[in-house]
Design a protein that fits this description.
The structure is a single chain. This protein is α/β, with parallel strands linked by helices. The protein has helices spanning 122-131, 144-147, 172-179, 181-194, 209-218, 239-247, 267-278, 309-315, 372-376, 383-391, 395-400, 411-415, 422-440, and strands at 25-26, 32-36, 46-47, 54-55, 60-63, 72-73, 78-87, 93-101, 158-163, 200-205, 225-230, 262-266, 285-291, 299-304, 323-328, 335-336, 350-355. The strands form four sheets. A six-stranded mixed β-sheet has the order 1-14-13-17-15-16, with helices on one face. Strands 2-8-7-4 form a four-stranded antiparallel β-sheet, with no helix packed on it. The chain has a four-stranded parallel β-sheet with strand order 11-10-9-12, with helices on both faces. Helix 1 crosses helix 4 (181-194) and helix 10 (383-391) crosses helix 13 (422-440). Bound molecules: iron/sulfur cluster (2 copies). The site of one iron/sulfur cluster has 16 residues, from helix 10, helix 12 and helix 13.
């Protein structure tokens, strides 16, 4: 049987060879971290510290009473310099805690393994994941304990782990599978226990043959955990595409993977879960690819959350002379940054720097009605119509044309020969439709 996949999608240049053989290196401790209180989808956290307080590494510094939220911990030991309004990587503003680091890396009291797979109950595991502040590490940043809380009346039979890493350039999940296969398996088992399922599938795109080999070896004697090869195609790592490819199930319009018995998590999230249980360490550092032709030495790093982009670029040998655009995340779904002072968050898996000749001028032309955007949309939508309705603020029509099913993958914008920013229009329109629905309820 060939590699599994979904219908439609695109085949961009992957450019993963820039960093896929670079083993993780630990980034230097930054002199200062700026930790956003909006680290994830859901309610922002409230600070538990104030200016002048000393904090230890791993100490909880912010939390929220809201269910859809996850606490935040200090990624260095040091002194709280201030709490101020900052810009987040997605272009919004939020409160941020600025900590001047000392050189001690003093670990917070009480950080120790809370137990093991065999002695923790499903509820214990969910609580540990919440208290460790773990959110989806693939970029979506949804609090993981919320994903694992199965509402009454729903039945889940599969955990899917996303090892597709379909965004061009990014290689952190790839390196995790090569360097930490046993922690991925341990994290997978913890996640399986948390949702009481006996079957897990780890889906990996076939452009990572070394990772597939290592993961197959690591799971050879594991009951219930299968490795499946996926075709290399964008957006193969989207939850809905993964489920279609691996289980041939379709998430209903407006529904969730839970509605068809599936929970999806990312490879790197499984490693964070393993660390929280094996070592008691909350989510204070993560992996990132600092890559692209605009940096001198593309690299994979483990960095402290709250490190500013410029420090990570320094670790990659600095910017090249023709560096032109910095994107946090991958080129398909990432966000261009206005400055290098922006601080990284739990979902920052890529710092991509493109050179001048790779950045096209923004010069959209009239639509030539070629329908290529319709042919590639993995959600069988009509991006050409959706973008027009969004531009004209025709929100009822947008909803009728299923804008809420758009997964914001950017395949339509990528393929459009007229270079129309289709996804960008659709995204803005979709947010308006969501806001209107919320106001009505
Ligand atoms: S309409 Fe949405 S789901 Fe379809 S290709 Fe465009 S961004 Fe992707
Ligand atoms: S791909 Fe671009 S030019 Fe072609 S139909 Fe869609 S919007 Fe129009």
């Amino acid at each position: 049987m060939g590699s599994l996949t979904f219908k439609q999608g695109i085949h961009p240049e992957y450019n993963k060879e820039l960093s896929n053989t670079k083993a993780f290196q630990k980034a230097k401790r930054p002199e200062q971290v700026i930790i956003s209180l909006q680290q994830h989808i859901g309610a922002p956290c409230q600070p538990l510290v104030k200016k002048g307080d000393h904090v230890d590494m791993g100490e909880k510094i912010a939390d929220s009473d809201s269910f859809v939220s996850a606490p935040i911990h200090a990624s260095v030991s040091g002194t709280v310099k201030e709490i101020k309004t900052i810009q987040t990587p997605i272009g919004k503003s939020s409160q941020g805690i600025v900590i001047d680091a000392d050189e001690e890396d003093t670990l917070a009291k009480g950080i120790a393994s809370p137990g093991s797979l065999s002695d923790l109950s499903p509820d214990d595991i969910k609580k540990i994941i919440r208290e460790a502040g773990i959110v989806g590490m693939g970029g979506a940043m949804f609090p993981t304990h919320v994903k694992l809380s199965i509402p009454e009346g729903k039945e889940v039979d599969h955990l899917i782990l996303n090892g597709a890493e379909c965004e061009p350039y990014l290689t952190v999940d790839h390196r995790m599978m090569i360097e930490r296969p046993n922690d991925i398996i341990y994290g997978t088992k913890l996640l399986m226990k948390a949702i009481s399922v006996s079957k897990a599938i780890i889906g990996i795109e076939e452009n990572k043959p070394d990772a597939i080999k290592i993961m197959k070896k690591a799971t050879a004697n594991e009951d219930g955990i299968e490795i499946k090869e996926l075709e290399t195609k964008y957006p193969q790592g989207g939850e809905k595409m993964l489920i279609k490819a691996l289980l041939d199930r379709t998430v209903p319009a407006g529904g969730l993977p839970l509605d068809i018995g599936v929970v999806v998590n990312n490879i790197t999230t499984a490693v964070a879960v393993s660390d929280a249980v094996k070592k008691g360490v909350p989510l204070i550092e993560r992996s990132v690819s600092v890559t692209g032709s605009g940096v001198n030495n593309p690299i994979n790093l483990i960095y402290r959350i709250g490190t500013t982009i410029d420090k990570l670029i320094e670790e990659a040998g600095g910017l090249t002379e023709d560096a032109s655009k910095v994107i946090l995340g991958g080129p398909m779904t990432g966000f261009a940054q206005p400055s290098l002072d922006i601080a990284t968050v739990k979902g920052t898996s890529g710092v991509l720097v493109l050179s001048k000749d790779e950045v096209a001028d923004f010069n959209p032309q009239p639509c030539i009605k070629c329908a290529r955007c319709v042919d590639v949309c993995p959600q069988y939508l009509m991006p050409v119509n959706l973008s027009k309705y969004a531009a004209k603020e025709m929100f009822d029509e947008l909803e009728d044309y299923q804008v809420l099913n758009c997964i914001e993958c950017g395949s339509c914008s990528f393929i459009c020969p007229a270079k129309r920013p289709l996804m960008q229009y659709i995204k803005v329109g979709k947010n308006e439709v969501i806001a209107k629905k919320r106001n009505k309820s």
